[in-house]
Amino acid sequence: MSRITSVVTALIAVTVLVSVAPAAQSPSKDVNVVDLSFYQASTTTAAYPLTRNAQVRNVIVCIGDGMGLGQITLASLKAAGLEGRLAMERMPVTGVVRTHSASSRVTDSAAAGTALASGIKTNNGMIGMAPDETPYITILEAARARGMATGLVATSTITHATPASFAAHVKSRKGEEQIAEQLIANRVNVLFGGGRRYFLPKSSDPNTGRTDDRNLVAEARDAGYTYVTTEAELQSAEHPYMLGLFQFDALTTASDEPPLAILTQKAIQVLSQVKRKPPFPLFRPKAGFFLMVEGSQIDWACHDNDVRNTIRQTLLFDQAVQAAVDFALRDGHTLVVVTADHETGGLTFTEAARRRTDPTPHWGTKGHTGLPVFIGALGPGAGLFAGVQDNTEIPSKIASLLKIKPFPRPAQ
Amino acid sequence: MNARETIVRVDATYDLRIRVGDNVRRGDRIADVPDAQISTAPVSGIVTGIRFDPASHEFVIVIAHAT
Fold first, then answer.
1. CATH of B5-65, one of 2.20.28, 2.120.10, 3.30.160, 2.40.50
2. Which is the catalytic residue, given A109, A118, A156, A165?
3. Looking at A29-43, A251-265, A283-297, which range is the least confident one?
4. Superfamily of domain A4-31+47-370+382-401
5. Do B42 and A173 touch (CB under 8 A)?
6. A8, A173, A365: which to substitute to probe chain B, counting the most B Cβ within 10 Å?
7. Helix or strand (DSSP H, E) at A233
8. What is the ipTM for the molecules in this complex?
9. SS3 A126
10. pLDDT, tens digit, 9 for 90 and up, residues A289-322
């Protein structure tokens, strides 16, 4: 039987390819065989302490892409058991976030990222702008305009929808080439993730994601960035502007690259040392910082309906949350907000089958759902994030704590 | 009889109406996308593969069909 690949154009994003795609309807995987050796679970259920009467100088927003309560609870049960808690479950203030977009009851990461970054609803697929294509300033850009250092860390390409939403403005999330240009032009101090393909010139590699010969790595170096691609280079570098692209595409989340928690620790280390531009008060030379950290691949595991990887990615993300919490508890002036952009997979579970110790997972879809998601907060101002809220309220609350007014607002 | 394969990409935000092994007819809706982005099967055939492409955040759907 011969095979011929046909050329078809359909109404939406219908693309013509050649090879046979593997049959990949992922069955529910056995929760029992998750390798958790990398994760040290807390054995206490106690919440972290509340911080009162302190000024917010630093903000760390941790986003688990696609991470609903099912994902958190399954990971928690597997890693910490009934007697333990994940770091994110120990946040002293918790609430619920509604996530619909301007165009759909079920959001994508672009519209949700825009809501979390700019405080506005937009259409699925759009980044950093309203449905009428008016760009809106992001909380990261507003913090930078206030003199704060800024950073983005993700396990996806750093140009993927969620990190892009904090420092880029494009009509389509597919414009990663343009997003890469904007991330550098926006002078984000720390950019850690994957996606070299969007920073390297077309002539350098046939698989590059660029359609031109701009070398954004060279441009970033010329603009004062230190460029790193390995964990050793990352650990030895110490510079207020760092571009870390650890894979050509997304991170693998495997051992040949720095894990999300290490990237988060390094980002905090770098950003917390950035000095204010003079003149500044002698008693307070640090600029303060805004950092967004994304566990990008929880969503991807859920699209595959892969329970094992969902748990693994959630725990990798929780390690990054722990790194943020550790710094915040030492610092006393750092607000940590942990949330998700949306839920993916409609993941739930029922009681274990006989002779099994783990619950039985069930998936409701391979796409996203409109379920509300978790939010937890720690540090000064955390109390603002209690209760049920819309995702657009989150950056507005952060802006109020940083005395940024007005917010939201169109970009100039 | 020759077999052909058509590959369709659909935004993975939305739920699919098809599974591997399903027979689809040209024009059948294959995903629960908003009305403005209706996605339909471009050919009649059997769904032989569905995988998630994280880079583009799309489902890659393979439909095998007779020539």
1. 2.40.50
2. A109
3. A29-43
4. Alkaline Phosphatase, subunit A (3.40.720.10)
5. no
6. A8
7. helix A231-236
8. 0.92
9. coil
10. 999 999 999 999 999 999 999 999 999 999 999 9
